[in-house]
Design a protein that fits this description.
Length: 225
C-alpha cells in the first residue's frame, strides 16, 4: 500500500524522507483522490448535458487508438473538456493555501503590501474574467483548443492547481487519473441527462446557482454497443 511504500522509503533511500514528508505525501494522495473523483463527476455531468461533445470525444478515443495512459496526450478534445470543466466548476471566493508576506517592499501592481499581510488567492475571479475568456460564464471547451479546434492548448489564466513553484504537487497524477478514467467510462457508457438541458443550465454568476443546478442533474447511463 502507499503507506508501506513511504515508510520503507524512510530507511531504504540514500537520503531518507522524514516523517513529516510521509504525512504530507499521504495527505496529497487522500485529498487528491477525493477532489479528482469530484472533478470527474462534474465533467461527466457536463458531457451528459452537452452530449455533442461526448460523442465527439468517443470518436476521438476510437480514432487515435487509445490504449493506455501513455496515449493521454492524443485526446485533445477530452483534455480541453476536462480543463473547461475544472475552470467552470470553480466555486467560492477564496481558494488555495493562505500565504503571509515575509518582508516589506512587496508590490502587486500599484499596491504596496506590508510585511505579515495575509494573502488569499481568489481563483474563481481569474477563471471567470471576461478579459481572459471569450465565454467566461458558459461551458466552452474551445477555450483550451487551438484556432483549428483540433489541438489542446494551455491557457494563461487557468490556475485551478495554483501557479509557480508552490502549485499542487499532485497535478500530474490528478490529470493522468482524470483522463484515463474518463476514457474508460466514455468508451463503455453513454451518459444522458434526463432533467437538464443546455438551455435549463444557468450561467455561472458566482452565486452558486450554476453549480447547484449541475448537481441536481439526473443522469441515465447506457451501455454502448
Amino acid at each position: 500500500c502507499m503507506l508501506g511504500i513511504l515508510l520503507n522509503a524512510q530507511s531504504s533511500l540514500k537520503s531518507p524522507i522524514s516523517t513529516h514528508d510521509v504525512k504530507s505525501d499521504l495527505l496529497v494522495v487522500f485529498f487528491g483522490v477525493h477532489t479528482t473523483g469530484r472533478s470527474i463527476v462534474e465533467a461527466l455531468i457536463l458531457l451528459a448535458i452537452y452530449s455533442d461533445y461526448q460523442d465527439k470525444i468517443y470518436d476521438e478515443i476510437e480514432n487515435v487508438g487509445y490504449k493506455t495512459h501513455r496515449d493521454n496526450h492524443k485526446v485533445h478534445l477530452l483534455r480541453a473538456v476536462i480543463h473547461e470543466s475544472l475552470r467552470l466548476c470553480t466555486n467560492g471566493f477564496f481558494t488555495g493555501v493562505v500565504r503571509t508576506i515575509e518582508k516589506d517592499g512587496v508590490k502587486l501592481g500599484k499596491h504596496n503590501i506590508n510585511k505579515n499581510s495575509i494573502i488569499l488567492p481568489c481563483y474563481p475571479l481569474a477563471m471567470h474574467d471576461p478579459k481572459y475568456w471569450d465565454e467566461a460564464h458558459a461551458f466552452n471547451p474551445h477555450h483550451f483548443l487551438n484556432s483549428n479546434g483540433n489541438k489542446y492548448k494551455s491557457h494563461i489564466a487557468f490556475n485551478k492547481f495554483g501557479v509557480g513553484k508552490r502549485d499542487c504537487p499532485g497535478i500530474g497524477l490528478a490529470k493522468t487519473m482524470m483522463i484515463s478514467l474518463m476514457v474508460d467510462l466514455i468508451k463503455k457508457y453513454r451518459f444522458i441527462s434526463t432533467n437538464m438541458s443546455i438551455d435549463d443550465l444557468p450561467k455561472w454568476d458566482g452565486s452558486g446557482k450554476f453549480y447547484n443546478a449541475l448537481m441536481r442533474t439526473k443522469i441515465r447511463i447506457e451501455m454502448r454497443e
